[in-house]
Prior knowledge:
The protein is mainly β and 256 residues long. It has 1 helix and 16 strands. A 10-stranded antiparallel barrel has the order 1-4-5-10-11-12-13-14-15-16. A two-stranded antiparallel ribbon has the order 7-8. The longest helix is centred in the N-terminal third of the chain and has 17 residues, at 3-19. It is elongated. The model has no long low-confidence stretch (mean pLDDT 91).
Amino acid sequence: MSPRRLTLSLLIVASAGAAACTVDYDEVAASGHLDYWRPNVAGHALITKASKAGTGSATSLRRDLGIDHDDTPGGGVDLDLARSRISFEYLDLALQGSTKVPQSFIFHAQTYPAGDRVQARLDVPTARLDWRYAIVKDGSDVWRAGVGARFWTFDMKVQDAAAALNESRHFSHVYPLVATDVTHDLGGGLFARAAGDVALLSLRREVLELLAAAGYGSGRFSAELGWRYLRYDFNESTNDGDFQLSGPYVGVTVHF
């Protein structure tokens, strides 16, 4: 089965599960959240041209391109229908860096010489859509699990003005996804939660997200402070990438 058909099948299953729920009006709730995330960046990307071996070399995002952190906005919405939850979330990852190249590297069939200053940009925005079911629900303590899909884009540009080089590579994918999250009521409005999802076609083609947070809620508003980890791992033809983003985030949620 093709990746797109598998993803579509999971979304159909999720939609059917949500639609099958018999829901009273007082069991319907919605919320929206805005996040600010400051991740550090580590890892590499090897990008070839026309999938020809030898037209790319492993390039460190931090050492060779000067990309070390980002200020990432994000947001999402949740719709609760009794024990079912439909979620959508978007992270606008736009990484930039500049550095003097410590050792020459090859990107998209062009050699960037050591000693030159390069300007780099790596956009890897991602969106997640999923359906989760509350397997355990005891008051405000909830454990959910479900399926969905993750859309993500890789758009990388590297410029060397001294050598008149300006190469770029762009592609997008949709991966089927499995997800889970746990929320625990600590009392007095305090809560703790952890969540994770993995979107993959194989062990070498995946996007993994993990987070843990603590927060406080009162009335229609809640806020949380936590740590998010996001890993992109792809190995397609002669292209290879394995890089991670991790760091603290703060989020504010409005409940309707």
